[in-house]
């Protein structure tokens, strides 16, 4: 990817931020901090529904499911499906959720 409006002699690769996975509608790239509310909404849906990961990604506004999974895992330290499985296992046992950043 190249910056628009530059001559061939001054072209340089786009900054890394433009290559980040998108988490926005229409594929707009955003950083992890901007996805915080979407991640929280996704966590709630994972905890309380049986909706598929694909449907949750679409519901919270992530353009691509793969990008949603990467962003969720970066934010929570586990993949969305693993989060759901651990949450349910702990709830059945009446135990507190595992330690970590969740």
Automatic annotation (TrEMBL):
GO MF, one example: sequence-specific DNA binding
Region Disordered, residue ranges: 1-28
SMART domains noted in UniProt: HTH_ARAC (SM00342)
Domain HTH araC/xylS-type residue range list: 38-86
Keyword Transcription regulation: yes
Skewed-composition ranges (Low complexity): 1-21
Keywords: Transcription, Transcription regulation
Lineage: superkingdom: Bacteria
UniProt name for this protein: HTH araC/xylS-type domain-containing protein
Organism: Cereibacter changlensis JA139
């Amino acid at each position: 990817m190249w910056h628009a409006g530059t001559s061939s002699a001054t072209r340089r690769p786009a900054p890394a931020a433009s290559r980040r996975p998108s988490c926005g509608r229409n594929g707009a790239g955003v950083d992890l901090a901007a996805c915080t509310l979407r991640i929280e909404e996704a966590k709630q849906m994972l905890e309380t529904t049986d909706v598929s990961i694909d449907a949750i990604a679409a519901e919270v506004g992530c353009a691509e499911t793969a990008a949603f999974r990467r962003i969720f895992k970066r934010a929570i330290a586990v993949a969305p499906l693993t989060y759901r499985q651990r949450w349910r296992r702990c709830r059945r046992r009446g135990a507190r959720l595992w330690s970590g950043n969740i």
